[in-house]
């Protein structure tokens, strides 16, 4: 199913082209931990969009598991206009195949979270949940709670109940190794394992566009946004107030 995800169409239609396709949890916001060439290789080999390969794999799986098509499936997400739009595109893509009778199920966030954290909820369901994840400025925040076997719901956010001893070892190694250069190959191995096992479909990350006053560019020299994309601009211009919050001096 991951091979059928129309990532390029969604990025253009929903994000206006301002997003980056992902093969696994590490994103460009993590700077030195992101390797564009390595990511593209994983997309090409394992999880990039390839309709012919996706349909072939699904056909084989249905035959092996003795599943009769079309299979009823819900694509579940929370009330969020952007998220609803891309989930609708994915739902329609799956529904147009001969294999799925797909519907869109939009819930309030308060209803979705208990479903995700209940071992008898999303983990036991054959439905698909689309949600966002903000992992912070260290790669461990993008991986550990989602993929380590100790983080099965409700103790963590591994709601797929994914369990792989090699993954656990790599996560621990990444947590206990110092230095970006030393950690980089560990997280590349994690990226590759995620792309091979596909415990979840990592789809894209939106690009953050920062606007500054070019007349005062010297004051923000060498500055870059925090990679968790949770910036809060409290000391500059607030459009809804039409005023500068603090005096210019």
CATH class placement of the largest domain: Alpha Beta
Q: What is the helix/strand order?
A: HEHHEHEHEHHHEEE
CATH superfamily of the largest domain: Dipeptide-binding Protein, Domain 3
Radius of gyration: 20 Å
CATH architecture of the largest domain: Roll
> Order of strands across the widest beta sheet?
3-2-4
Mean pLDDT: 89
Percent of residues in beta strands? 5-15%
CATH-assigned fold name of the largest domain? Dipeptide-binding Protein, domain 3
Indicate how many domains the architecture comprises.
Answer: 2
Explain what this protein looks like in three dimensions.
The chain is an alpha/beta fold. It has two domains: 2-206, Roll (Dipeptide-binding Protein, domain 3); 214-244, no CATH class. The chain has helices at residues 7-15, 36-47, 51-64, 81-95, 109-117, 144-147, 165-176, 180-197, and strands at residues 19-21, 71-78, 100-107, 128-129, 204-206, 237-238, 243-244. The strands form three sheets. Strands 3-2-4 form a three-stranded parallel beta sheet. β6 and β7 form a beta hairpin. The radius of gyration is 20 Å and the shape is globular. The chain starts with 6 loop residues before the first helix and ends in a 5-residue tail after the last strand.
């Amino acid at each position: 199913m991951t091979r059928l995800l129309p990532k390029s169409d969604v990025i253009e239609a929903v994000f206006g082209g301002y997003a980056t396709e992902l093969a696994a949890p590490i994103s460009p916001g993590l700077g030195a931990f992101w390797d564009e060439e390595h990511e593209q290789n994983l997309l090409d080999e394992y999880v990039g969009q390839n309709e012919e390969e996706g349909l072939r794999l699904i056909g084989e799986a249905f035959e092996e598991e003795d599943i009769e098509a079309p299979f009823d499936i819900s694509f579940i997400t929370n009330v969020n206009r952007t998220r609803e739009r891309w989930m609708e595109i994915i739902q329609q893509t799956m529904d147009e195949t001969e294999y799925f009778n797909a519907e869109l199920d939009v819930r309030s966030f308060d209803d979705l979270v208990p479903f995700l954290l209940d071992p008898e909820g999303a983990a036991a369901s054959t439905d698909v949940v689309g949600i966002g994840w903000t992992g912070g400025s260290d790669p461990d925040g993008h991986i550990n709670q989602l993929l380590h076997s100790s983080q099965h719901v409700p103790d963590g956010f591994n709601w797929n109940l994914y369990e792989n001893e090699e993954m656990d070892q790599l996560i621990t190694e990444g947590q206990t190794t110092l230095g970006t250069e030393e950690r980089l190959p560990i997280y590349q191995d994690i990226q590759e394992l995620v792309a091979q096992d596909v415990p979840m479909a990592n789809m894209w990350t939106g690009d953050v566009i920062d606007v500054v006053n070019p007349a005062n560019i010297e004051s923000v020299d060498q500055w870059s946004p925090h990679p968790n994309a949770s910036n809060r601009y409290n000391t500059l211009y607030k459009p809804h107030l039409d005023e500068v919050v603090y005096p210019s001096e």
